[in-house]
């Protein structure tokens, strides 16, 4: 399915990252990166395993703190705001984890209700049920409502993970390896879902992946992370129209596969 | 020849490893204190997770109930049976109910309950939170605007602190029942007479000390289990280590606390 043209406001960055560095013990993962995510945009961050892609979105959501640099999300500096403000900001950001991170001990319904009940004070039972049904319907998994996460397939878990973030109507979505470990058909479905979320919920998204098909189908812009820095940023064709020996094999391998 | 070069390499290595272990030990002690402080900072500030606390109390109670019933009964029965020959030598078997009640109420009931709960509840909390940590469920709670510490840690620690004293009281009565069966079988003592002799030597201090002990044990088991699980790392291996660490550390601390509380309460007798 062809990706519909997104309405992107290039004058309105929802995330601005400047000079961010992060090291774990002696290993510098990110070495002073700059990046903007614009309103309505799907930005794909590509790179090899261990290059700090997931670290980047964990920094954005405040799960990790940078060693230096600034991260502005929806106008707020993540490293400087109080814990309460960070908690309020996080409600406006959806985070879809690589392994879905569904709560094992809860049914799908409880998983979806969990963030809603905790963040919308005074919400009625009828409103909760309506929101759960709507969000499940939008990911096409209404029939799984009473199932436990262990009973779901990998693709279904990903969808429920996305649904759990969507229930709070986030303005920004962060996807960590949304197609990792899935079969090609399910990958296509997940890519379509990411595009559908962008259109339906008017979200701006950072999609972390090393799957070029996912990057091509979902990304309005691609940022290639190499050696702890963004070496190439642009449209899919702009990024891969190069003889750079660090970029070319990435493209060749993915499409030969 | 300087001192360093005269030391065998293996010994040098051992010394540095020892230094590392010492440093790890002190940083763990520091971290667990921060963890306890965080518990007190978050547990008594609204919003309160009453529903989850009740659910956890139920979980802790149900998880240990059968084992505590069986163990408590056997401890009471065996203790009475093993004490009888010594008292028989002095013709003092009539003191058996008093002896059993003092031993059970002052020491055995809280201690046995705490040790069983360390194994059943502590390991379970360590493994559960450890598994949630390595599968990013705790991170998922954090990014969805929920305070995972309050929801996962505070509720479990409060639940163990409330439930273990209740279980310890129950263990005491079950152990006394075991003791009664043995006494009744050998002496033909009636239940009423046995119970009168059981409560006769007990003082208010015995009940208070036993209750305080159980509260401290319950808090320790909850905090240690949660600490081990909440900061678990290294994938599935880390989950196993968290469960194991929760049991070993909690049991060790329970014995240390037992000694300290006994020393303190003996000053009031």
Give a verbal description of the structure.
The complex is a heterodimer of chains A (257) and B (269). Chain A has one domain (9-101, 170-256): Rossmann fold (3-Layer(aba) Sandwich), CATH 3.40.50.300. Chain A contains nine helices and ten strands. Chain A has helices spanning 53-60, 83-91, 108-119, 125-138, 154-166, 184-201, 212-218, 236-240, 248-256, and strands spanning 9-24, 27-39, 42-46, 68-73, 76-77, 93-96, 172-176, 204-209, 221-226, 229-234. In chain A, the strands form two sheets. Chain A has a six-stranded mixed beta sheet with strand order 6-7-8-3-9-10, with helices on both faces. In chain A, strand 7, helix 6 and strand 8 (204-209) form a beta-alpha-beta unit. In chain A, helix 3 packs parallel to helix 5 (154-166) and helix 5 (154-166) runs parallel beside helix 6. The model of chain A has no long low-confidence stretch (mean pLDDT 90). Chain B has one domain. The A-B interface holds A 58, 61, 63, 87-88, 90-91, 93, 95, 97-99, 101-104, 114-115, 118-119, 164-165, 168 and B 131-132, 135-137, 139-147.
Features:
heterodimer; A: 257 residues; alpha/beta; Rossmann fold; six-stranded mixed β-sheet; four-stranded antiparallel β-sheet; globular; B: 269 residues; 87% helix; elongated
Layout of secondary structure:
The complex is a heterodimer of chains A (257) and B (269).
Chain A: E1 9-24, E2 27-39, E3 42-46, H1 53-60, E4 68-73, E5 76-77, H2 83-91, E6 93-96, H3 108-119, H4 125-138, H5 154-166, E7 172-176, H6 184-201, E8 204-209, H7 212-218, E9 221-226, E10 229-234, H8 236-240, H9 248-256
Helix pairs in contact in A: 3-5, 5-6
Chain B: H1 3-6, H2 9-43, H3 50-89, H4 96-134, H5 137-143, H6 148-187, H7 191-199, H8 204-230, H9 235-266
Helix pairs in contact in B: 3-4, 3-6, 4-6, 4-7, 4-8, 4-9, 6-8, 8-9
């Amino acid at each position: 399915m062809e990706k519909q043209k997104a309405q992107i406001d290039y004058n309105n960055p929802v995330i601005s990252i400047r000079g961010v560095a992060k090291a774990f013990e002696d290993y510098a993962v990110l070495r002073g990166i700059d990046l903007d995510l614009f309103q309505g945009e799907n930005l794909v961050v590509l790179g090899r395993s261990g290059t700090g892609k997931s670290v980047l979105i964990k920094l954005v959501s405040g799960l990790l703190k940078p060693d230096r640099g600034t991260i502005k999300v929806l106008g707020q500096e993540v490293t400087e705001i109080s814990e309460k403000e960070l908690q309020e900001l996080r409600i406006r950001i959806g985070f879809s984890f690589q392994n879905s991170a569904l709560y094992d001990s809860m049914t799908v319904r409880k998983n979806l209700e969990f963030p809603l009940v905790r963040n919308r004070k005074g919400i009625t039972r009828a409103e909760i049920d309506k929101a759960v049904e709507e969000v499940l319907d939008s990911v096409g998994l209404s029939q799984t409502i009473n199932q436990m996460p262990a009973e779901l397939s990998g693709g279904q878990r990903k969808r429920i993970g996305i649904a759990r973030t969507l229930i709070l109507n986030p303005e920004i979505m962060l996807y960590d390896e949304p197609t990792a470990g899935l079969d090609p058909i399910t990958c296509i479905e997940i890519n379509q879902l990411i595009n559908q979320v962008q259109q339906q919920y008017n979200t701006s998204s950072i999609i972390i992946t090393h799957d070029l098909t996912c990057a091509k189908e979902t990304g309005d812009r691609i940022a290639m992370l190499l050696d702890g820095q963004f070496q190439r940023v642009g449209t899919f064709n702009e990024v891969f129209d190069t003889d750079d020996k660090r970029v070319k094999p990435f493209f060749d391998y993915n499409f030969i596969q | 020849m300087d001192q360093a070069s005269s030391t065998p390499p293996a010994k040098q290595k051992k010394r540095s490893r020892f230094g590392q272990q010492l440093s790890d030990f002190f940083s763990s002690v520091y971290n667990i204190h921060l963890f306890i402080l965080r518990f007190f900072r978050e547990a008594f500030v609204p919003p309160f997770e009453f529903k989850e606390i009740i659910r956890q109390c139920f979980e802790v109670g149900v998880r240990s109930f059968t084992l505590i019933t069986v163990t408590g009964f056997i401890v009471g029965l065996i203790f009475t049976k093993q004490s009888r020959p010594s008292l028989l030598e002095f013709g003092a078997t009539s003191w058996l109910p008093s002896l059993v009640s003092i031993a059970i109420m002052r020491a055995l009931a809280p201690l046995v309950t705490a040790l069983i709960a360390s194994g059943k509840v502590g390991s379970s909390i360590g493994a559960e939170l450890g598994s949630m940590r390595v599968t990013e469920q705790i991170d998922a709670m954090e990014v969805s605007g929920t305070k995972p510490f309050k929801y996962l840690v505070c509720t479990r620690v409060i639940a163990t602190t409330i439930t273990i004293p209740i279980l310890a009281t129950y263990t005491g009565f079950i152990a006394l029942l075991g003791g009664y069966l043995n006494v009744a079988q050998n002496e033909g003592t009636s239940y009423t007479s046995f119970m009168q002799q059981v409560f006769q030597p007990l003082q208010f201090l015995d009940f208070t000390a036993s209750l305080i002990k159980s509260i401290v044990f319950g808090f320790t088991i909850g905090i240690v289990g949660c600490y081990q699980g909440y900061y678990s790392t290294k994938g599935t291996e880390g989950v196993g280590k968290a469960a194991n660490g929760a049991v070993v550390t909690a049991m060790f601390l329970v014995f240390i606390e037992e000694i300290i509380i006994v020393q303190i309460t003996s000053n009031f007798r």
